[in-house]
Amino acid sequence: MGIPGEGEKIQIQSYKHNGRIHRIWEETTVLKGTQSLVIAANDRTMVTESDGRTWITREPAICYFHSSLWFNILGMLREDGVYYYCNLSSPFVYDGEALKYIDYDLDIKVYPDMTFNILDEDEYELHGREMRYPDVIDKILRRNMDQLIYWIRQRKGPFSPDFIDNWYERFLTYRK
Predict the structure, then answer these.
(1) Is residue 1, in this structure, part of any structural domain at all?
(2) Is position 63 within any domain?
(3) What is the span of the domain harbouring residue 20?
(4) Distance CA 102, CA 173 (A)
(5) Which residue numbers belong to the known binding site?
């Protein structure tokens, strides 16, 4: 597995368990890249859905991917604070073409006051039956959901004070 370089612009590709493409973010700037961690940012980047529809992100986002955690975290900077969108997913891989992961439907939306909602449990159940998610995947995802909720409540990792703001400041140096 390669390592994307700091300042490099990469594509992010999200897949489903059956191997089909789910969503592609065209251009994201790497702020930190190691074997185990990628922190990146984008703003007003084009996103292509599996059905070919496209849209542009509305605000800057800091993206957190880890090679051993079954979730990724997007911190979106809005006028009224930082909102987080957390995807339960496979750990990332980077193959030189794109940063890739499997999206497992379950999501957590976190608000600026650190309250949160678990989203798409019905979609997870449906896709789990349709794509036959193995029991071991379900156990891994449930354990990682618990870890993610712990991080949110303890304000760890990307949820810690100033994490998003500090990485956003770094992102701005690449935009000049």
Answers:
(1) no
(2) yes
(3) 9-171
(4) 31
(5) 87, 103, 105, 107, 120, 123
Q: Which residues contact 101 (CB under 8 A, 6 or more apart)?
A: 13, 14, 15, 65, 72, 87, 89, 90, 91, 92, 93
pLDDT in tens, the chain (176 residues): 689 999 999 999 999 999 999 999 999 999 999 999 999 999 999 999 999 999 999 999 999 999 999 999 999 999 999 999 999 999 999 999 899 999 999 999 999 999 999 999 999 999 999 999 999 999 999 999 999 999 999 999 999 999 999 999 999 999 76
Residue 2 falls inside a structural domain: no
| Bridge-based pairing state of the strands 99-110 and 9-15 | parallel
In a domain, 130, yes or no: yes
Each as own residue / partner, the long-range contacts of residues 24-32 (CB below 8 Å, 24 or more positions apart, any chain) are 24/48, 24/98, 25/57, 28/63, 28/99, 29/171, 29/174, 30/4, 30/5, 30/6, 31/6, 31/62, 31/167, 31/170, 31/171, 31/174, 32/6
Domains in the chain: how many in total?
1
Report the CATH number at residue 89. 2.40.380.10
Q: How far apart are CA 103 and CA 152, in angstroms?
A: 20
Residues annotated as catalytic are 23
Residue ranges at the known binding site for Mg(2+): 87, 103, 105, 107, 120, 123
